[in-house]
Amino acid sequence: MSREYDLKPAPSGEQPSAKPAGDSLINRRQFLSYGFNTATGVLAASLGVLGFASLLLPPSTSTGGDLAAKYWAKGREDEAWYGAMHEQVMKKSDFVAEAAKSSTGTSGAAGVWNGVPIVVTYVHHSKNAGTPLSNGKARFQFMDGYDGTGKYVGHFDDLADADPRLAPSEDLVMIFARCTHLCCIPGWQLVSNSFTEDTWTPGGGDDGGTKLFCICHSSRFDPTALEMNTNTNRSNGAKFKYAGIRRAGGPAPVGLPIIPIAMNGDIIEGLPDYVDWYTYCD
Ligand code: FES
């Protein structure tokens, strides 16, 4: 059973804000820092659960470093299904086996990739996509995206057509796990509530479960609803469009960006091609 946490109300009117303009590019050191640097109180709330502070960053090598995603279950070794695999590489077969125990055929796990927090979710899209949506069988949904003001941004397919690696061909989606509200670390079934239960409804709305949940102020994200959206580089104020999962509810203005996946046999690896998408926290 997932652990229960007290939830704090969202600070009224607070949204992520841009800093004065600076360099438009980020280097490896800055990229890695996005996983760890944020406002002290928010960071404490996140690290208190996940303990990312003790993480050793993977070495940088001439081949680009360690691209494998790894499980991160520190403090939850006894309750998370991947607790015994803490810091081991993520394998698709693990997710498939866990999803077989689920009524929705889904599974998810918190992890770390290239020094930043991630969540990987498996959805049996390849099986369920051929059935009527009204059957309520969980699958990926490729959707229009709207920014925090309700303005149309674009369709997920616009980005996936340009780079097919963004499409979840392996029934897996990996996201950068920093909340677009105040940069806490949303998790997969960190808490037990109606948003995280093993149920699924189509449409990317806030009904049904199977959501990624941010414990800081209760934002919800649907890992099956894939869309285009827009966010802001916090260091220089530059806006960017990204492929991500939909914000379903709570104070977060938009959803979470995808990290494209490449399979190395059974091992799940992330591709560092879209680091500018992960710059809305610092
Ligand atoms: S940081 Fe506020 S809801 Fe996630």
Strand and helix map with partners:
Blueprint: H1 28-33, H2 40-50, E1 70-71, H3 92-99, E2 106-113, E3 116-123, H4 125-128, E4 141-142, E5 144-146, E6 152-155, H5 156-162, E7 172-176, E8 187-188, E9 212-213, E10 220-232, E11 239-249, E12 256-257, E13 261-264, E14 267-270
Parallel strand pairs: 4-10
Antiparallel strand pairs: 1-2, 2-3, 3-7, 5-6, 8-9, 9-10, 10-11, 11-12, 13-14
Bound molecules: FE2/S2 (inorganic) cluster.
Protein model, in words:
Helices cover 13% and strands 25% of the residues. It is an alpha+beta fold. Strands 4, 8, 9, 10, 11 and 12 form a 6-stranded mixed β-sheet that branches. A hairpin with a 6-residue loop joins β9 (212-213) and β10 (220-232). FE2/S2 (inorganic) cluster binds next to loops.
